[in-house]
Amino acid sequence: MNARPVHHRQAHHRPSGRAKLRPPVPEPDPTEPGEERVVSESKVQNGVNVDALLAARDALSKEPAGAQFEWRASCKWVNGTHSQSAVRGFGGLGGEQNHKTEFTFDSDHPEVFAAEDNGATPVEYVLVGLASCLTAGVASVAQNRDIQLKSVEAKLEGKMDILGILGADPDVRNGFQDIRVTFDIDADASAEDIEALVAQSQKRSAVYDILTNPTNVTVQVK
After folding, report:
1. Alpha carbon of 142 to those of 72, 176, 205: distances in Å?
2. Going from the N-terminus, what domains does the chain have, and what CATH number goes with each?
3. At what angle do helices 191-204 and 122-144 cross, to 10 degrees?
């Protein structure tokens, strides 16, 4: 399937939507199964190797066992509400894989919670994960559609009533009540094409799916 024609003009995109209330609109896309991307001499450079991703998709469609991944993280308590988490290895492609290096993340509560503020709060990491996942999707879809990105910024806001986590009101949930994502995108494309980039990224985002659909979570003591 040929990539969409690019309208060579700048367009700023500031759509905002509540994750629970604005499901992505299904639309045909070159990255969907059964559709092929035409490899051309594209000068678009968003830093995403789409051809390799599509080749991997085709290979894993024939060997679905390799598509079963297990992502892992470990966490150690430091002091108070301060903890340090790390990620290094993960399972996938039929074996054990590793990042190039171990990544560590400090987490704590802010001083207004009578803590030391040694890192971002766990709920802020949730927002970071959603922002990163959606932004990566925008870059990938733009590369596949021959749309040159100039800048992509996302701002996220998560509304929470902390009476829930404080145990002060049993009718208040512990987690976010609402998450709002606002993108500001500058690209060589029309406003409609940029809207479509965000919609397709939302449709394929793992973190968006985790936040908007039930996920089995088991907590146990060794």
Report:
1. 29, 30, 15
2. 11-22+66-212 (3.30.300.20)
3. 120
> Percentages helix, strand, coil for the chain, rounded to the nearest 5?
30, 25, 45
- Classify residue 66 by its DSSP letter: G
pLDDT digits (tens, 9 = 90+) for 94-138: 999 999 999 999 999 999 999 999 999 999 999 999 999 999 999
Q: What is the rounded CA–CA span in Å between residue 47 and residue 95?
A: 27
User: Residue 74, SS3?
Assistant: strand
- Burial (0-12, 13-18, 19+ Cβ within 10 Å), 128: middle
Residue pair 183/40 in contact by the 8 Å Cβ criterion: no
* In contact, 139 and 149? CB cutoff 8 Å: yes
In terms of pTM, does the model score above 0.85?
no
The residue among 103, 107, 100 whose CA lies nearest residue 86 is 103
Residue 79 structure tokens: 């002091």
3-state SS class at 95: strand
